[in-house]
Every structure is written in structure tokens, then in C-alpha cells.
Amino acid sequence: MASVVLSEPEKLYIVHGVQEDLRVDGRGCEDYRCAEVETDVVSNTSGSARVKLGHTDILVGVKAEMGTPKLEKPDEGYLEFFVDCSANATPEFEGRGGEELGTEIANTLYRVFSSESSVDLKSLCINPREHCWVLYVDVLLLECGGNLFDAISIAVKAALFNTRIPKVRVLEDEEGSKEIELSDDPYDCIRLNVDDVPCIVTLSKIGYRHVVDATLQEEACSLASLLISVTSKGALTSMKKVGKGSLDPESIFEMMETGKRVGKSLHIALQKILDEEESLGTSRQKVGFLG
Amino acid sequence: MPLDHRRVRGPEESQPPELWAAAGEVPVEGEEGEDKDAAPRDPCDLRPLFARAGLLSQAEGSAYVELGGGTKVLCAAWGPREAAEPGAAAPAGTGRLLCEFRRAPFAGRGARWRPGSASEREAEREAAAALQEALEPAVRLARYPRARLAVSALLLQDGGSALAAAISAASLALADAGVEMYDLAVGCALCRSPGPAAAWMLQPGEPEERRAVARLTVALLPALNQVSAVLGGGQGSSPDAWVQALRLGLDGCHRLYPVLRQSLLRAARRRDATAAAAATAATA
Amino acid sequence: MAAPELLSDEGYRADGRRPAELRKVRARMGVFAQADGSAYIEQGNTKALAVVYGPHEMRGSRSKALPDRALVNCQYSMATFSTGERRRRPHGDRQAGELALHLKQTFEAAILTHLYPRSQIDIYVQILQADGGNYCACVNAATLAVMDAGIPMRDYVCACSAGLAEDTPLADRSPEEAAGGPRLVLALLPASGQIALLQLSARLHQERLEAALEAAGQACRALHAVLDRVVRDRLREVTALLGD
């Protein structure tokens, strides 16, 4: 991961600031940075979103392709995650350098979405045991300025919200052979219900307190963070400790409580932006990377 | 068209038989009668744990951990070596801990794992990363600047709670190798079965783990009361439920700790005895 | 011939352009704050990002350092969702390696590499959405990014593709026009008229080469005007910020 080198006094300054609930950029411990969310930025995907959280810049594209259902779940479609840590973010990711981090993030996403209720997979099934939609969620990391996991989960949720899957009909002829017919109308499509899609909240332990949405500098001061995924209803679907250090059990409990609170408000804010964008419809001025 | 006579021509479309078996009937649980003990199981029950340190002569430190459910993990550790590429990855002044996790090809039941497949390697790498994260806080890496320590865990049989057993075994092996540590990292796994009122269970067996809707692995440094690993996911539930699960898991770690300590002491005594015997033999 | 008509009787192409007309170009410099230089370009529906790091010390093995000039290091990748069919990996395939090499050759010709001996300049380009002319979009984006990084160049490098419909050359081919027919990619240093890269695929009659080359050159010069305006706008913006 892109890393910054901080001197001891710099670290001390950040740690003392956090102790006073005043961070280097003026935020409190439970405040997120200003986030920009835009959906439908890549037109040849089923759904896409770009999220800019401080200097962290994420582009997510969702592609729906037809596949065969998994053996264990013959009447469900499934999601596939892939994270590309492109060399854009830092030269260290050139070639295969970003693969390790990419698979780590992808594994985390699989765990976050392991809950059955997060996305209605049954609606992705076309024809039990034979055909289903496979949603390829491809994350492209363009710039990393701390708090990758949260930004990625926000972008994934926004992209899933934006995803439109064409409606198909299964036609069966007399001999029992099935034919799949794609709807001609491009507006005739299924939307996913993303109400239960969780967002990740990363809480970094700095000194005796924990902060959300740490910048790269703050991440350098933190020895251990707790990553939890929260749904809009406040339910936890996964948790993970990351980093070299260890955590006190009591502080883990506190962090979970904070995470739930922050996660809920994060969901509300995100949903509001998404609904606003949705209501503008085609009249919306697309900004993309030109803004 | 030239016909290939060596090839048996099968039907163009085929489906694996498992498909039909799974859909046809209600799955018969517990072919070996496992469902009987599954229902009345006390959620706080720990499986019997057997641990032995210092059993491999080639490795500097080694440990073997076996859980009642059939999980068997063998771990070996190698003390500080000069790092191959100085200054890479780890910040100057601290050592590096390299972890490896392997599943034996016969570890799983049935043909669930194709050895050497991409998904298996992926899973192994993920487990290795989790192992590293759990062990790093326990090892005094600052005492080994510019050096690397290596731990290798081999899962011989997966009977559930494999990662937790691997964490315990790896920290035992490191301690057995004489690596300076703050404490042993003790791992413990939990899972929750489907159903609204289902409680979290400690150290699930393999069938329980497969059925579970949520899983959690925790690692604790009991003497310092520090949590070194939390890794879990599954069906969403309120934070309070997860807190309860965590408490249960940490309590389990505390209860496992004496067993691991005992095995370490026994290994040290055994080593002393053999050293003394060798010394007397030399003088005689 | 059963091939679709590339030019209508009135002399328009399938997407309504005239033969020498480019697709709409929009670009922006300085997209990312952490990179030394970055740029984004849209040419029609093709969207590309370029990021430049450097010049900096050699990364990795120092033995690759060149004693008299800077090493230009390029990577070309395409987002997995950029194409109609999902790609399995963003880079590392043969085509990406080849295009990265072309990019390197193009920019070695344009950057004043002798000013930075024993150092390295990284150019990373990323196709976000592919709709024909990917390589050209990458070159144009990379030019802007290199300028954004403040690395001295001989000239802009502008790249454009050209094809032929019967005997009328078509500038900036769209993917529909790409099916069959000769294809010419030209990277030009417009001020001096020097060619940094010329690539020709499929068969083309010798007599028509001149016309196609001329069309591609024209298109490159037109692109140069657009890019130049982007750079000047950006410069004005930055100096205005500095002035306050």
C-alpha cells in the first residue's frame, strides 16, 4: 500500500490531536471526509460508480454476464469480486505488485457479502441449475489516500444500486429445450435492492482513542484497526482486525458500538445522494473525471 | 470428418449428479450420528485439546495441536535468519515474520478440495495472512532487526476450527524455537447455526461449521489481555450479539491457555532431560 | 463487396462524421493530487487515464539505469469492465505488453531524457472505457500527464488512427469502421512534423499510403490544437491560484 514516512514528532502531533478529538484536517474522531459519489460513469457496464473520499479514488464497474449457478445453490446467481490495484495509485503496484492487496480486499468483500440477505441472489436466477446472472464487481483503485476499505464498500454499494440487469424470458418449446430471450427494450430491466448491502467502517486505534476514515498519515500512526461491515439497519455482518498490533477487548466493544452508529449515518447519507441522483434521471450533467 | 476412436463421446450436456441428490430429498444430517450430539451441545463446551511442543527434530521449534473434532495441525518454526533482501517491506529496526499455511491434500472430507487448484491456493494464502496478523503482536519483532522468522503450518486434517488451531500451534512452535515473545497467541473459533434463536457455539466441528450462517475466529494474548485477531462474518446480527460471541470466544481462549502452557513446559523439561542424559553419557 | 458501407452517398460516415472529422475530445489535466502528473481524456466514448511518476531514482534493480538518459517505463492496462465482454485481467497479456512497448518508444522520442541521467520516469495508462482508438487516447492522455508533471518534452505527441473507405481516408476510426480494412496509427510531433510511431496493419496499396498518412497527420494536428488549449487553460488556472 502506498505508505507515507512520518517522523516521531509528526506522529506525536497526530496522536495528541486525536486525544483532543481534533484531527489534523479539523475533523472530529467520528467524522468522515467529504465524499463525492457519482454513478453511471462507464457506459458499457451494467452499473458503475466512482467514489472520491479525500485523496482516495475508486471506480467500480459491475457487469452482468450469464453463467451457470453454483452446485450448492442451484436457484441463485452469484457475485464475483475482483480488485485491481492499478499502478495509477502508486508505482509499487506496477506489474503484479498490487495483486496481494487486491486479493486481500476481494476476500474481505466476499466475507462482507457472505451474508445471504445482503443481495437478493434468488432474483439473479434465470433458470434453476442452468442459467443465472453472474455479477462481476470489478473495483479499480485509482488513488489511495487512506481508508480504502470504506471507500470501496461505498463505491460497490453505489454501483450495485446503479446496476440494471436486462430482463430475460425463458421460452420452452415442445421438445423441452429451452431458449432464452432477451428483452428488446433497454429500459425493461431488473434493479437490485441494496437496502441490506453493508458498508465497511474501519476504526483505527490511535493512542487511546479510535477514529473513523483515517488518512494515510493517520494510518501510519495506528497499529491496529478494526474493520466492521454494517447494514443500514445497524446489523453487523463481518468483522476483522487488521494491522500489526493487538487490541484490548474493551476497546473492541467500544469500536463496534461506534462503528454501528457511524455506519448507520453513513448509509443514510449515501442513500440520500443516490436517490437524488436517481431523481435527476437523464437530465443529470455527468461530471466523471472532467470535473 | 475424422472420428477420434479413442475418445468416448458423451452426451453434449451433462450435469453433476450432486445436483439431483441435493435437490431431491431433505439432506440426511450426520451420517456418523453427529446430529445427536449437535442438538444438546453446550455452547460453552470446548473440545478436548491435545498439544505437544518440540516433536520435530529438524525444525528449531515445532508443535502439534489436535482438537477433539479431528482437527490436526502440525507447525514448525525457524528462528532468526538473515533476511534475504535487506530493507524490503518491513521498516528498518524490526524483523519480519513469514507465515505459511498449507492444507494437506487429504485434509478435507471427500473431494471438496482439489489439491493445487487456484481456489485452494487462494484460501491458503488468506489463512496465512490471517495467521501472520494473529502472531505478529505476540512476537517481539523489534528484538530481531533485519532478520526473518518463519512459521509453517500444515493442516493434516480439517475437523473444524482449523485456523484457530493453527494459530495456537504456530505460537507454540515459535515459543518452542526460543523466539522472544510477549505471550502465546491462543486461537478459538465460534460459529452460529441457522435459526433466529441459535446461539454461538465454541470450537465447532466440521459439520457444524459447514452448516453455520456466521463464523468467527478470535486470538488472544491471555497474559496481556490483548486481542490479536478477530476474523469473522456471516449473517448480520446486532453488535450486541457479536460482543457476546467475542466474550465467549475470549473466555474460551483463557480456558485453553493452561493446556498450551503445560505442553510447552513439558517440552522444555523433556529437552533438559535429554541434554542431561547426553552430558552424562559424554562424561562416562 | 458485402462489407458495410463506410461512407454514405452524401459523404458521411456511419456516426454522422465527415471523413476527416474527429470524435469529440474532452480532456483534463491534474486529476490526481498524489501523482506527479496525471491527465484524463475522452475521445468519443473512449476514456483513458494517464499518470506519471518521476523523474525519480531507479526503483528495483539499479543495473537497469542508463548512464546518459532517463529510463521511460510504461504500463498499459485496461480496466476489466472497459470492454463489452468482461476482461479477465487488466494487464499482463501479450497485447498490453506490446502496447506498453510502443508507448515507451513513442515517449522516448518525445521526452528530453538526456536531462535526467540515471533516473526513471513512469508512465501508467489505464483505459476505463474502450471504444476504438485506445492506443491513441492513451498517447494523448500520457502527453498531457507528462506535461502536468513538468517534464520537458520536444513537442506534444499526438496520436490518431486512420482507415480507408475505398479511396477516401477516414480519420479517427470508430470501432464499427474497424472491422476489416487497413489501419494506420500515427504518433506525430506536430511542430516539427516528425513521426514518433507509425503502425500499419493489414494490406494497403502503396499509392494510398500517402493519402492515409496525410489524413492521420491532419487529424494529429487538429488534436494538437485541442490539447494545446487544454494545457493553456490548465496553466491559466494554476497561475491564477498561485497569484492570489
Automatic annotation (TrEMBL), chain A:
Keywords: Acetylation, Cytoplasm, Exosome, Nucleus, RNA-binding, rRNA processing. It is found in: Cytoplasm; Nucleus, Nucleolus. Its main location: cytoplasm. Pfam families: RNase_PH (PF01138), RNase_PH_C (PF03725). It comes from the Eukaryota. Residues 32-166, 196-261 form the Exoribonuclease phosphorolytic domain. One of its GO terms (molecular function) is mRNA 3'-UTR AU-rich region binding. One of its GO terms (biological process) is TRAMP-dependent tRNA surveillance pathway. One of its GO terms (cellular component) is nuclear exosome (RNase complex). Belongs to the RNase PH family. Component of the RNA exosome core complex (Exo-9), composed of EXOSC1, EXOSC2, EXOSC3, EXOSC4, EXOSC5, EXOSC6, EXOSC7, EXOSC8 and EXOSC9; within the complex interacts with EXOSC2 and EXOSC4. The catalytically inactive RNA exosome core complex (Exo-9) associates with the catalytic subunit EXOSC10/RRP6. Exo-9 may associate with DIS3 to form the nucleolar exosome complex, or DIS3L to form the cytoplasmic exosome complex. Exo-9 is formed by a hexameric base ring consisting of the heterodimers EXOSC4-EXOSC9, EXOSC5-EXOSC8 and EXOSC6-EXOSC7, and a cap ring consisting of EXOSC1, EXOSC2 and EXOSC3. This is Exosome component 7. It comes from Aramus guarauna.
From TrEMBL, chain B:
Gene3D superfamilies: GHMP Kinase, N-terminal domain. Residues 46-180 form the Exoribonuclease phosphorolytic domain. This is Exosome complex component MTR3. Keywords: Cytoplasm, Exosome, Nucleus, RNA-binding, rRNA processing. It is found in: Cytoplasm; Nucleus. The keyword Nuclease does not apply. GO terms for molecular function: RNA binding. One of its GO terms (biological process) is rRNA processing. SUPFAM superfamilies: Ribonuclease PH domain 2-like, Ribosomal protein S5 domain 2-like. InterPro entries: ExoRNase_PH_dom1, ExoRNase_PH_dom2_sf, PNPase/RNase_PH_dom_sf, Ribosomal_Su5_D2-typ_SF, RNase_PH. Pfam families: RNase_PH (PF01138). GO terms for cellular component: cytoplasm; exosome (RNase complex); nucleus. It comes from the Eukaryota. Its main location: cytoplasm. Belongs to the RNase PH family. Residues 1-43 are annotated as: Disordered.
TrEMBL record, chain C:
It comes from Grus japonensis. This is Exosome complex component RRP41. Belongs to the RNase PH family. PANTHER family: EXOSOME COMPLEX COMPONENT, EXOSOME COMPLEX COMPONENT RRP41. Component of the RNA exosome core complex (Exo-9), composed of EXOSC1, EXOSC2, EXOSC3, EXOSC4, EXOSC5, EXOSC6, EXOSC7, EXOSC8 and EXOSC9; within the complex interacts with EXOSC2, EXOSC7 and EXOSC9. The catalytically inactive RNA exosome core complex (Exo-9) associates with the catalytic subunit EXOSC10/RRP6. Exo-9 may associate with DIS3 to form the nucleolar exosome complex, or DIS3L to form the cytoplasmic exosome complex. The keyword Cytoplasm applies. Its main location: cytoplasm. GO terms for biological process: rRNA processing. Keywords: Acetylation, Cytoplasm, Exosome, Nucleus, RNA-binding, rRNA processing. Residues 21-152, 155-218 form the Exoribonuclease phosphorolytic domain. GO terms for cellular component: cytoplasm; exosome (RNase complex); nucleolus; nucleoplasm. One of its GO terms (molecular function) is RNA binding. SUPFAM superfamilies: Ribonuclease PH domain 2-like (SSF55666), Ribosomal protein S5 domain 2-like (SSF54211). It is found in: Cytoplasm; Nucleus, Nucleolus; Nucleus, Nucleoplasm. The lineage of its organism: Eukaryota, Metazoa, Chordata, Craniata, Vertebrata.
